[in-house]
Amino acid sequence: MENFNYQLLMIMNVTPDSPLWVIELAMFLAKQAINIIPVVLLIAWLWVPRRELVIKTLLALVFGVILAKTLGTIFPHVRPFIQGAGYQLLGHANTPSFPSNHGTGAFTFALAFLLWGRLSLGMFFMAWALGIAWSRVYLGVHWPMDMAGAFMVALISCFLTQWIWSLWGRSFLANSEKIYHRVFILPIKKSWVKY
């Protein structure tokens, strides 16, 4: 498996001959694209509103982060640049690489929209998540298997969220909306945000 991981990295990794525009695209995806998550969730809560989707997505993200951190602690794996594999164009601390935290967040977000939201948005966000995953391997801070692990963590987190939601979701949603209505009473009355 380690050899396969290495060979795949060598296929996907940046080279000295890589076009500048591809490197710049990868840099954007690796560093900035993840910031879409809070923006989309805020819009979905305040103006759409898709509050069940927002809460389930946030819950799945929490599970994903906890599971990814736990796996990284139990099964630490060094990053490619620590082993001298490939080229590294993105600065990164020497933390465990498996599974990717960026990949976990992006895949969890995309799967949430595929499972609980609109299929078209889910497909768009899955392409976006794959772009983030590719960029971090391309720039040399992750192995390909880190992203496969991130996808599996995201899948488990979404299924765990669905199970929790089937038990307590309705009451949690109702209580969350009550708090929102109290805190945002003025913006709601002025029609700045949705009730």
From TrEMBL:
<feature type="transmembrane region" description="Helical">
    <location>
        <begin position="147"/>
        <end position="168"/>
    </location>
</feature>
<protein>
    <recommendedName>
        <fullName>undecaprenyl-diphosphate phosphatase</fullName>
        <ecNumber>3.6.1.27</ecNumber>
    </recommendedName>
</protein>
<feature type="domain" description="Phosphatidic acid phosphatase type 2/haloperoxidase">
    <location>
        <begin position="53"/>
        <end position="162"/>
    </location>
</feature>
<feature type="transmembrane region" description="Helical">
    <location>
        <begin position="123"/>
        <end position="141"/>
    </location>
</feature>
<keyword id="KW-1133">Transmembrane helix</keyword>
<dbReference type="InterPro" id="IPR000326">
    <property type="entry name" value="PAP2/HPO"/>
</dbReference>
<keyword id="KW-0812">Transmembrane</keyword>
<dbReference type="Pfam" id="PF01569">
    <property type="entry name" value="PAP2"/>
</dbReference>
<feature type="transmembrane region" description="Helical">
    <location>
        <begin position="20"/>
        <end position="46"/>
    </location>
</feature>
<dbReference type="InterPro" id="IPR033879">
    <property type="entry name" value="UPP_Pase"/>
</dbReference>
<keyword id="KW-0378">Hydrolase</keyword>
<dbReference type="GO" id="GO:0050380">
    <property type="term" value="F:undecaprenyl-diphosphatase activity"/>
</dbReference>
<keyword id="KW-0472">Membrane</keyword>
<dbReference type="InterPro" id="IPR036938">
    <property type="entry name" value="PAP2/HPO_sf"/>
</dbReference>
<feature type="transmembrane region" description="Helical">
    <location>
        <begin position="58"/>
        <end position="78"/>
    </location>
</feature>
<dbReference type="GO" id="GO:0005886">
    <property type="term" value="C:plasma membrane"/>
</dbReference>
